[in-house]
Amino acid sequence: MSDVIMQLADVMQREVDSVARIAQNAANVATAGYKARIDFSRLLTATGNDASSGAQVIQEWGASDAGYIDLTDGVLKVTGQDTDLAASGKGWFVVSGGGQQWLTRDGRFRIDANGFLQTRDGLAVMGEEGPLRPGTSGFQITTDGRLIVHGQETGRIRMARVEDARQLVGNGNGLYRLPAAPAWMAAEGIHQGMLEGSNVSVSTDMVRLLEKTRHIESVQRALQSYDAILNSGINQIGKE
């Protein structure tokens, strides 16, 4: 009987973890470049039973219970800011700071006092030859990642593609650790003056939240029933 209770408790914990992932998605629905966390059950649907969806998913670092990251592109939004960049397809921006390089799809960049392109947290946006330095005005970044300053090409943005998605380790703030053996790729699908929106589906997550809540309630009732039966059995043995 205690094994049944432990199994039910494990199921409940998984569902609670799933609700936490839904809450994380909801909190980042307006975050540029955010990739939704999904459950293993949705992964099977996207890749096994619904081939027409074209969804690309990768496993987060850790056990499968941790969920997966949905890599489908978010909707592109025009901002008109020259320092805003959006990537479409499989390419990820490479940023650097503190001797460490990271991957991100959050293209809300800015120019620092020395004319270098950086993230909101001060990480350098990398080019193929080092940190990109557009200067303070008169620059363009083409769809194939070339940096054009006053009509002259001065560099090309660095892009990476992860061949083994399980190598991605999340670090928060939209950053992922660069794999030990990164797969560099020619920049493509770069959009200046635009941002990639979150790919969270609010309607889908609300349905999932309702399903998870109901399941948690049913498991909780089952736990209470088994616990009552166990206590009754122990009391009966004591009387005998």
TrEMBL record:
InterPro entries: Flagellar_FlgE/F/G, Flg_bb/hook_C_dom, FlgE/F/G-like, LlgE_F_G-like_D1
Location(s), subcellular: Bacterial flagellum basal body
Similarity comment text for this entry: Belongs to the flagella basal body rod proteins family.
Residue stretches making up the Flagellar hook protein FlgE/F/G-like D1 domain: 88-146
Keywords for this protein: Bacterial flagellum, Cell projection, Cilium, Flagellum
Taxonomic superkingdom: Bacteria
GO cellular component term of the entry, any: bacterial-type flagellum basal body
GO BP term, example: bacterial-type flagellum-dependent swarming motility
Domain Flagellar basal-body/hook protein C-terminal: 192-235
Organism whose genome encodes this protein: Fluviicoccus keumensis
Transmembrane segments: none
Record protein name field: Flagellar basal-body rod protein FlgF/flagellar basal-body rod protein FlgG
NCBIfam families: FlgEFG_subfam
PANTHER family: FLAGELLAR BASAL-BODY ROD PROTEIN FLGG, FLAGELLAR PROTEIN
